[in-house]
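Translate sequence into structure tokens.
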Amino acid sequence: MSTFPVDHTDLKLIRPIVRLAQRIDKETHAITKAKWDEDWLSNMAKEAELHSSEDSDQWVFKLQALI
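Result follows.
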């Protein structure tokens, strides 16, 4: 089986683009996860009947104590 010819100079040009794409993917994943965590905490607070008028940090601490 023959190998596919690859010009290594092309790979050097592509490397920064791939690194940027990886960085964007990593940041996007982190943002999505943080949003999911925030939504989960909010839903748990509603189920625990913690009022939204309370300081948000206060209900987060209360909720974390329940977990």
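Note: Residues 8-47 form the longest helix (40 residues).
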